Amino acid sequence: MLRWFITCCASVWLSGALATGTPTYEHQLPTVDDHPMHLVHWPGPKDSTQPPVLLLSGPVDTWHSDSAWFANLAPRLAQSRQVLAVDRAGMMTQNPDAPVGYAHAAVDVIKLLQARNIDVVDIVAFASSNLTVMGLLQRPEGPVDIRQVIMIDPDVLTPFSIARYKSDAQPFKDNLAEYLAYIGDGKYIPRSTQKNAADREVLTTLAGDDPWMDWTLVDTVFEARLNPVQQANTFLEIAGYGSDLDAVKAVTWPASIPLTIVDTDFEQHYIDNTDDAEAREGLEQWRADAKAYYQELVAASDKGRYVPVDSHAHLYQVEYPQQVVDLLTE
């Protein structure tokens, strides 16, 4: 039944809540820029004076990049304000013609907010979704007043790190036709199932018995990942990742927009798990490159904050959701 709902692209197709008294939410599939998008919407209190929070996701090691990564942050935020966890085109919908990628997501976000008469937002951007945020700064379709941005382990837009990201994505670009054929035959579903299990183990380890963790939301998103059309869209997006990087690498941060960057030490996990001296050196250089880039980026903002943390996990918002809430409200 769930997959039928995702295919049909109804405007609202599933709602839920953690327990009595916790914020309710809806999975919605609005048409934006002539294609369906998926978002999870928590309306928040009717009397809230705070702007909505826009949650934008990026990938973890499994390349999964969707609203599941906000399953215990969003309900906390929704106690006091409206929350929209927006998935990029094709990441949760069975649309074979989805305009995938971080660059187009900036267009979609602008049009989505305009359609909802939202002209002021706070943004929490995890991992590569900072590419969409940087794209928002370039869009002429506005105006959307970005009140503040929190980036968690964003992509490092320096020549060294961009080259590293492109190298990681190159196999997807080189072998795209073969991969899409394999996915089209349904052969990737077992592998996707294994990745879901790995992701769930990570979430369980990080969230523990957090009462705000919405496992129903997680399961709903994970099920959508098993659809071959969605899987093909993910591979298409990764194949175009290099172009998305190039599109925003020269964007400068406006001094007027407060920016907080949370820099975890997730690279240490990779360093500890390689015996290759050259690979270890590259990882250490990548970590140093990130620190320097982040500090430079926040320095461009009149209200910039660089927040280094010791966590070796690449899902800070899952491990320490309340700290993210505090950063938004400080």
From TrEMBL:
Listed InterPro entries: AB_hydrolase_1, AB_hydrolase_fold
Q: Enumerate the UniProt keywords alphabetically.
A: Hydrolase, Signal
UniProt xrefs under Pfam families: Abhydrolase_6
Task: List the signal peptide residues.
Answer: 1-19
Residue ranges of every copy of the AB hydrolase-1 domain listed in the record: 53-326
Gene Ontology MF: a single term? hydrolase activity
Tell me what this protein is called. Alpha/beta fold hydrolase
